Amino acid sequence: MTTTTTTTIPTLMPSTPAWGKSVAVLALGSFAMGTDSFVLAGILPQIAGGLHISTGAAGQTITAFALTYALAAPFLAVLTSRLPRKPLLAVALTLFVLANLASAAATDLTLLLTARVIAGLGAALYTPNASAAAATLAGPAHRGRALSVILGGLTVGTVFGVPVGTFIGQHLSWQASLVFVAAVGALALLGVLVVLPALPIPPAIPLTQRFAVMADRRVLAMVAFMLLTSGAGILIYTYTATVLGQIAHIHGTQLAAALLAWGIGGVFGSFGSGWLTDRLGAERTLTLAIVLLIATLAALTVSTSFVAVLIVMVLNGAAGWAASTPNNHRLTELAPNLPSVVISFNSSGIYLGQALGAALGGILLDDGVTARVLCLTGAGIALLAVVVHLLIPRPTPKH
Question: What is the model's pTM?
């Protein structure tokens, strides 16, 4: 009996710390990023009023964050490739926290845009490394679930962070919302410092080799698909206050509830997409996600009651957040020796799509486009993503 006890306990105990605790800590950091990425959408009118600018101009603060992330992530991955992972993640979160405090202190649009660029650098440094670390810690059998947990941190940040940040912005000030985001980031930093174990330094990959991955047309098409999908969703979400205000006359507390519904749907989409990817495969999961995204964007144009809006927002959030995990999964299958590289490009595609979507939405609104036309524009972009998806040959994993 003694022999049985001593052999059983070591076998069972490592299963929890092997990837569960570590990935949960990494997800806490992505929780902070998710809060920061989306809280501004709920307080754009307050930012516009406080800085005496248009809502479209205020929306460019989201563009600045997302565009910085998209362009900086691949280069930061090379510059920091020889640095220890845990300190690197801690530095990224520190930069993120300071940038959000600077955002709250900004007195004009130029200063705010500058602070958002710095916050984008922190996110670009953190998220790809966190995702790659999670995939490594979990192993191939649980890669989909581990990646979905990291993405789930973003959606949980959206569920709790965005409505709380919106409430704070509407009842205190938009600056207070950004201080709240900084506090979330500080909590994530503490978790990384205390809980995360030391992580191995991955092999250094030159910039030329990183971009050589994009020579594979399948990789390029998959990133383009993610760009279009992300752009279609964020085009509407960035200006949710305007869209729901025009179509359904939703403001204030009801707006916060609609954002909460979107975030709840996102939690189901991000976590559920990992489960579906491990069972149905990445291709089928992506097809379900993009079709649902198109349907919900179109449905927003005729959703005039509060109940209808809540239902559509839940489904739209689920669809929008369900694409990233299976796309990451098929990219890592395509380039299993360079997981951090393809994940960073996928992340760049997401944030570049967000930048372009937020910018396009702001331009269209400033030109007098109605909310319904804005929703149909988003649906059209998502339809283009379907075309790209259908043209991608089924990837063959490399061994």
Answer: 0.74
